[in-house]
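Section 5.1 Outputs to date
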Amino acid sequence: MSEKLVIVESPSKATTIKKYLGKGYNVVASMGHVIDLPKSQLAIDVENNFEPRYITIRGKGDLIKSLKKDAKNASKIYLATDPDREGEAISWHLANTLGIDIHSKCRITFNEITKKAVTAAIKEPREIDEKLVDAQQARRVLDRIVGYKISPLLWKKVKKGLSAGRVQSVATKLICDRENEINEFTETEYWTIDAELLKGKKKVNAKFYGISGKKKELSSEGSANEILDSLKNEKFIVSSVKLSKKTKTSPAPFITSSLQQEAGRKLGFTTARTMQAAQQLYEGINIKGKGHIGLITYMRTDSLRLSDDAVSDARNFILNHYGEEYLPKSAKIYKTKKTAQDAHEAIRPSEAQITPDSIKASLSADQYKLYKLIWERFIACQMKDAIYDSLNANIDAGKFTFKASGQSISFDGFTALYTESKDTEEEKISKIVPLEEGEELKCNTVEANQHFTQPPQRYTEASLVKTLEEKGIGRPSTYSPTITTIINRGYIVRNKKNLIPTELGMIVNDLMTEHFENIVDVTFTANMEESLDMVEEGRENWRNIISEFYDPFMKTLEVAEEKIGDIEIKDEESDVVCDKCGAMMVYKHGKFGKFLACPSFPKCRNTKAIVKEIGVGCPDCGAPVIEKKSKRGKIFFGCTNYPDCSFTSWDRPTSEKCPDCGGIMYEKLTRGNKKYCPVCSEKNK
């Protein structure tokens, strides 16, 4: 009896699903798309209602032959690509390539790769959703037209290798606009008066508020000192005390954007690094004693919905491990945005019982950190809220009013497991010191402090994703590749966590803003996303959307062609001499950041990595140690004498000596930059 054929996208996913289906099923991978638009041409037939001209992707010929052979020998074919627009389009292309009737029940989807989900999907196959396919085609065609029409203009007028795009150009503009805000910002001086008061031995920190209960801003040192002088003989009397209870609500489960933000803030992950680890967790990991299993639900989602089974799973875990006091009377339900597609659940672990530490040995460092983050957030979202006792007091010193506040935890609730991070640091709140109206506090110190208003913060990947989501720019699947693209194009550089526009990025953004106002307009782009969603819902024809966009766009392109003059961007010259032709090398931007290149290209193709010495000698040979980057862009340290000296380290060697053994101390490139001695650490194991 012939086997049933299941086609998925990746070998890892195939391995996981094969384990669940067992005998009678052949599970193979398409390795992503097999059909796409060619890279060498526009491939959109504008005269024929914007018909896309698809071709077999180069190098996929043998794979397609193999798939056709498997399909011919199969008794039934199931297309099990990812459960989104892109996955639906891949299934549609596979069906057309393999001669499968798209109206037959050949399509299966699942939000998580578990035995229960996979076997349930096999029992309920459906037709390929052509509305989803049309939505994907509309996005693909629209982005192809924008990219392939504007990019050649940028090549001609500015520099070869540049590109423009519907979402990437808006993201670049947001970062450039923020940089302009920072450059134009004028700081303003202001002063505060801070008093350290004592109730017995307990400290009460109070801040100057105003005069006779009315708020007063202090804009100069003179006004602050005038108040300080007046306070010298005053007693600090508590005039009012307000005690209250505050509730801190448990966080919602993760969606794509919030996962990328939190992984960026807590783990220091880029969006690309987050999505890579999430993809691996979703497709399945070989867990010791359990085999190949999918650990999380689908990671491209904007829905906060959770299945009843998943919620029950979490509630049972909370009851068994934290007790009844941490379990709400009823399950918590989180409201999804109106603009969300709600096709999938929120991102959660496949099983609450699979704790991070129970599988740590089977996961890579990134997989473990991300799984722990997802698992803890999911369990926490079904725990009781945290409750705090809050105190706010007014303290009078003559006619001057000071305010003091404090907070103490009454019930830790979900914070027993998980604490959400923020883009900006929150002001630290003092612990409660019980105060009573009418009591006098002893003044220990009172001082005036100068401050200046701060410019807006630069975007990080986390805050940019948050802004893109809030403004309706792009969708869960586009945030990470958009950021990767604008960095690879040299429009933006990543400095620590901050995203900073380059000169090239600023020039291209100015051109786009002046000549292609709609393309970089936030509202226009957000409205276009809504139109694409309407295609998916069957309320709009995708060809009509492209048609309405195309004619005005082409007129804009013609005007831009005439108005934009040639712009010469000179590469920044370095002080490094090319060892092949003698020219002064220049700085270039590539996929992995800045590098040195010969300006005589293409006659001379010499390139060099930028050497960044860290001011420390090699522990093995004494030569300078330099900072390097791996193929994946991760920083490590190596000796300049390589290959004669093979010293390398992921941790930064320092000039400090270990107080115990005299060896070199190393610094971990993680939050806290913890220093340690490898020799003593090994001895203490």
